[in-house]
Structures are given as C-alpha cells and as structure tokens.
Design goal:
Number of domains: 2
Oligomer: single chain
Structural class: mainly alpha
CATH architecture of the largest domain: Orthogonal Bundle
CATH topology of the largest domain: Arc Repressor Mutant, subunit A
Helix content: over 70%
Largest sheet: none
Number of strands: 0
Length: about 140
C-alpha cells in the first residue's frame, strides 16, 4: 500500500539525492587534481564525462568490480577531512613531513611504498605519519 504522503515525497527525495550526487561530483573533480594522472583520468571519465564502470572495465580489461572499488577508494580519500588538512597545511610543514603526508593521505601509498620511494626506513615513515596524525588531529579540533 502506498500512502499519499510517500508519493508526494518521492520526487523531492530524488531531487535532493541528485543534488547531493552533483555536489559530490563537483567536489571530487575539483580535488582530483591532487591525484596521480591515472587516478585523475578515471575520476574525470566517471564524474566529468559520465562514463560507466562497465565500459571503463572493458577498455582497461579488468572487472567492473575492480573499477567500482577503485572509484569508491578514490572518492573516500578525496572526501576525507584529513586529506583536506594535509592539502591545506603540507606546505607549512617541514618538507620531508609534508611529502610523506601527501604520499600517504593523498596518493594512498602504504608505509612500505613510501619508505622505498623516499629512501627511508619503515620506522622513520611510521614516526612521521604518527607526527602528521597529531598535526591533523590538532587542526581538526580547531575547526570544531
């Protein structure tokens, strides 16, 4: 049984949902400039040109689930408040700390990948990320 009130609310709910999706797309596209070229191209294809995961998967010869999972990971990363703090503040931090923070929070590299790329020990990377976590927490606390 459909109640009259539910029928009237359906178009408003849909419009709100569409507006939220459009806003998310704009945010993701704007922030995608922070990503590696391949990741940026994927998001531009999906959010900018309306590409579908199935079509992209066929072009890249991977499963649609792989593409969907990658898109979700990238969107989650770009909408994470910690990422915003890193992007706003990394230029003010010591260069080595800022580069490690960007590698981890923006580029999504693991500690091991950062250590290899930067010529650091895994211990050094852990310490620097722990320090960055403290800076991020302090910044987020100020914003509240």
């Amino acid at each position: 049984m459909i109640l009259a009130g539910h029928v009237a609310e359906a178009p408003q709910h849909y419009a709100l949902h569409q507006a939220q999706r459009q806003e998310l797309a704009e945010v993701v596209l704007r922030r995608s400039e922070w990503l590696e070229p391949g990741d940026r191209a994927l998001l531009e294809q999906v959010f900018g040109r309306g590409g579908r995961a199935r079509e992209l998967a066929a072009m890249l010869q991977v499963s649609p689930r792989t593409i969907q999972r990658r898109i979700r990971q990238l969107v989650r990363r770009l909408t994470d408040p910690r990422v915003l703090v890193v992007m706003r503040r990394h230029g003010r931090w010591e260069q080595a700390i800022g580069l490690v923070a960007v590698a981890h929070y923006i580029r999504g590299l693991t500690f091991r990948q950062i250590a290899e790329e930067r010529g650091l020990t895994l211990h050094d990377v852990r310490q620097q990320i722990q320090f960055v976590r403290g800076l991020i927490a302090a910044e987020l606390a100020k914003e509240r």
